[in-house]
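Quick illustration, no need to memorize.
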Amino acid sequence: MKETQRHKGTETQRKPASMTFICRLSLCLCAFVSLCFLFSSCKVGPTYKTPPSPVPANFKEPPPANWKEAQPQDTELRGNWWEIFGDSQLNALEEQVNVSNQSIAAAEAQFRSARAAVRVAGADLYPTVTAGAQSTTIRFPTTRVTSQTGFNQGTGTLYQLPIDVSYEADVWGRVRRNIEANIETAQSVGADLENVRLSMQAELATDYVQLRGLDEELRLFEQSITSYEQALQLTVNRHRHGIASQLDVSQAETQLETTRAQAIDIGVARAQFEHAIAVLIGKPPAEFSIARENFMLQPPEIPVALPSELLERRPDIASAERLVAAANAQVGVAKAAFFPQLTFSLTTGLESLTLSNLLSWPQRFWTLGPTLAQTVFDAGRRRGMTQQAEATYDSAAATYRQSVLSAFQEVEDNLAALRILADEAVQQETAIQASQRATDIALNRYRGGIATYLDVAVMQNVLLTNQRTAVGIHTRRMQASVLLVKAIGGGWHKSELPSSKDLRSH
């Protein structure tokens, strides 16, 4: 009876002890978390500002006939910018680029990797908790007196189930600066993704335009071959009647066969553009073909923003600017290394000399304490890393300014190309009309017997050359239109970059 009462009394004493331990542990954890937030209140390092860059008030080139200044709320180029060219097949091909292009897929995977890196860096804001199990065999000296039971001749096995909690207080903002750097790097990679997408879309449109230009040249060759066949037949008939010489017949045959060979040669370039388009849309060239069509595309009206707004519309500029911000944050990370590192650690768990008692509450243990560490001597390592981070920032800032200047150059180049090629197209049309009249006159004189076929051949070659030149000018105007759209960023805007909240929530 007395033993039973004693046993009950022991249990009554254990319950308050366990509750006391839980209360103490809870208080320690609360103090632990409070200290974490208390010491995570400042950040060292420079405050970021976008590097200044030379921005002119207006573009140098005067607007061509098919140009208009974009208004602040102009959304014409938003989304599917290629639709301004009004070609249904081009529209269908561009949609496939967005889905199947492997360069875009690779850039998208790189963005997902950069976004995951943000989560990795953000994890440093929180404590690290590890749990495990371990078994340790211990031998005590025979002269050592111990009150522990379960040993056999001074040896025994200690079983433990420890839980470790550690946390580095972000006193100087090293962790937060690192998170900033990763967020800004992810934004840069996101802008790179959009730049790759825009580049692939523009490359497809350029290849498509050049392919259609070759189709138009083939049409001109076919028309000329028909005319040359008729001229050859006329010369053969005149030779039969003794009016034309054999030399005239040979000249007519030479002109016809040379033109046929030139027409065949165009097929090489056309096949290459067709293959390039197939790869851009993610298909093997053997599974893709484009039927011939007349070259009906015309340079569209393109809204061009002011130079100051161009900085917000180019994904490559946005990418370069975000890299500058990331480099600035890394300077803060490097400078934080000069300050002490404060770490809190908590270890708790269960331990016993026998497995049967391991899960018993009285076998608990815990330790809690902060650690303050300061590097006293590192032979200039931290100073060198800070200088390296500052140099990286300067390099990124210079790259950003260069990307801005290159953007202005690309816009100016294509504005100039559109203006000059428009004037050249008008002049070339005049040249075509003049060569057409000269060809008609030479052919009439030849029929009348007052001119040789050489005169006809010369003027027909001049006419075909002028017609091909006109097609080339038109193709270049279309290419310049595509490149101008690319130079102004397509339909993209900096506001489309993923925000810090979006990157940290995935």
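Confidence is low (pLDDT under 50) at residues 1-18, 145-151.
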